[in-house]
Amino acid sequence: MFLELRKKCSKKKSFMFTKTIRRSFLKGMGVSLALPMMESIAPRAYAAGSSKAKRMAIVSVPFGMVVDKFHPKDTGENWTLSPTLAPLAELKQDFTAFSGLDHGVNGGHAANHTLLSGIKSTERAGYPDGNLTVDQRAAELVGHQTRFPSLVFWRDGMSYTRTGVRVPALEKPSDAFNLMFVNDTDEQKKFNRAAFRSSGSILDTVLEDARKLQHELSGNDRHKLEEYFDSIRETEKKIEISKGWVDKDKPRIKGQGMNSVAAGSRDDALGSNQVEIWMDLMLLALQTDSTRIVSMAANNCNWGLEGVTDSYHTLSHHGQREEVLAQLAIVEEFLMKNFARFIKRLKDIKDAEERPLLESTQVLFGSGLGSGSRHSNVDLPLILAGGGWKHGRHLDARRKQPLCNLFLSMLQRMDAEQDYFNRSSGTLTGLS
Questions:
Q1: CA distance 189 to 293
Q2: pTM, rounded to two decimals
Q3: What would the pLDDT profile of 231-263 be if each residue is shown by its tens digit?
Q4: In whole angstroms, what is the distance from residue 341 CA to residue 262 CA?
Q5: 29 secondary structure, DSSP code
Q6: Pair 104, 380: CB distance under 8 Å
Q7: Is 354 exposed, middle or buried (0-12, 13-18, 19+ CB in 10 A)?
């Protein structure tokens, strides 16, 4: 991308473009901080290119949803939000809810990894593109335009390359943060640790460079930079709060079945800010154009939610028991509130052309399980937001179309010149 744009510029424009590439980062004390897209420091050719950017963000939950509470009862544009979707009320015109979509596979948890591909890893040899997932196909299209072709957060096992390789996930928020914002050469690792111990913040290390940059920015861009710094500072604080619990003893719980938890089961509460932090990091990845393809799969725990005593996985096997469904409702409301917050922030943040970032970002929420209680892989809970689509509707495919039809439509929206994706029979009918 750099070479192509540089060839098109005169020597003067080429110099300005090179200057802009350098000015895309703030530097100080061994730290390089990516900047959000801003018109004041982007030459016309670069800004025009960024306005055509196509992005994809995926949030997946591995244990299904209570589908009776997730799927709306009526269809079309005059539809009523279901109880689970209620936290998205003010964003109703920004997303489409789906029912009746799945891949026609079965296997319960063993088939959950098919959410983004429709193909079991054991059956990939029978398909031209193997079990390539929609996020990794999108990364093939636009990944060369950013520092990271794609990023996968928190839990792996959902994203696969064309050759069937499972894309490993960044499992710790601090690792993801450092990967995106901190230089990690061998020579600088020791220096960076010392710099953070003395400064306490990545923002403090680039403060002097940031003050110089303020003089080059328009009023809109100064506001955008302040907003971006606020996001960085907020995320740093959340990560530091999480670190504070590492060396603290956990309470000892007496009672039947508690030994495995005390011994370090994955069902341990990790803190209610875990989901929020990961979505903040997804937002920062897109806001800085560090990547245009980012996926997150929630891990199994109860996230320390008040009123929730069992893990997400355990609760998903609810068997219609009222006391378990009550806990699961808390978990699902928590997930939807954080997803709504993520969508709203994408809507509020502007790109270099002063357009909402949500317009260029297709955001998919879903699970490879429909009802965890029945270990079902049919009628999956799915939402698509943003991306320039006409939303504000509930689309019931009535299982007459495969889910891969939706993925094909999403890929074509990202300018993919293809007429199939894995199990697809065409693009998704009814999606405007």
A1: 27
A2: 0.75
A3: 777 667 656 654 444 344 433 323 333 333 233
A4: 33
A5: T
A6: no
A7: exposed
